[in-house]
Amino acid sequence: MSFEVERIMSVKPTLPAGVRDYLPAEMLFREQILAKIRAMYEVFGFSPIETPAIEREEVLTGGKPPDMIIWRTATSTKHEGDDGLAMHYDLTVPLARVVAAHSNSLPRPFRRYQCQKVWRGEKPQAGRYREFMQFDADIVGSDSLLADTEIIWLMVSAMRTIGFERFKVRFSTRKVLNALAELVKVEPGSSLARDLFRILDKQDKIGRDGVAALLAKQFVAEEDRDPNDPDATESGLGFSEEQIKTVSSFLDITGSSAEIVEQLQQLFAGRSTLGEQAAADLRIICEGLTGFGVPAENWIVDISVARGLAYYTGPVFETTLLDLPEIGSVMSGGRYDDLVTRFTGESVPATGASIGVDRLFAAMEKLGLVEKRKTKTQVLVTIMDQSLTANCLEALRVLREAGIPSEVYMGPDMALKAQMAYALNQGIKFVIFVGQSEAEAGTVQLKDTSTRQQEQVTLPLLAQTVKSKAE
Q: Which is the CATH superfamily of the domain at 379-466?
């Protein structure tokens, strides 16, 4: 044995953290789910596109520090143009590039869907991967709230067509939190505003008292914080009692969607034009969803929804599984009216949502919703006698020409017991046997492995018989 063979054989077949293999049992179900989502997107009038996995880094980041750790590419041999390339971390930024590059040939509004893998250098954890698939749908070129409403309608429809019933599409608008920032004299979009939203996002973990304590805690600039002091790394905002009271009034808002909108209107009335507009926007979306007949049990206004990416400018959406909330949002999105601006200087309104396919699949596995099948094969043609192989292959041809997934046994153990064991292990419903008498009569023996019933069928009626029994 050569050294090279020894070296190759010693390599462990392990995966890096944050990625996974999909074997046939998972992949078949996954493809089935993707087909259902694709069909639903097309019912809503969306058309597919595909973009490269690699982009110029400045395209992905806009020349600014990225919102997340991205995967930069490297090649063993340098070629012109190889520098500054990275793997796309979502499908929204590449869509913005496509819209800018093909603006003369794309319609407005442009309704697109896209299903591809993306890569992020995040810390792997439950439901969070470094390589994962996204399935996006976006409407580009419409600033109407009807577009945002339709995206929420699409989200609910997609989740229901997959098979979920107990879920909520939670939505708000970035205008709500920006208006709150205005009320407490914090500049929207500033680092202080981001700190405020970060603290509000901790309410489920630290409670209202914990939020109030952080708001009152003295503010420490990031460059002055001691990384070795756990208390110092969590800066407060140094809010006054009046500012904390305003935030508390905001956190008190609860109830049905209509009640939340009404309370927002009361909170911001005469105090924030932006806040009044936010309440009006949410009211319009709620009325639209009701008018469309979108099931009310599957959507709700939730002013805690903010979405992490900085490019969102308006309504934002998240989908929570009520039986597995800890896995996080499985379908999210929002409005991003300024993303194309980095390429053309033109503000192009856009809104959309994305399904995290791998997180969704992980959730379905945990909830026992994955129906695992090892193969799509419906019929296994056995070979009992090598001299009758041609007859067996004729039966195989008849089945395949009729569009029936079928295969002929090719294993090393040609014993009939081994062939039957293969069919049962793979979950193949029908098995065909051809003996000497069947070959002479132009027939086959067709066995149903689930009922164990067996009958003799002529070749002209074979496909019809299999189809009728498979129904």
A: Anticodon-binding domain (3.40.50.800)
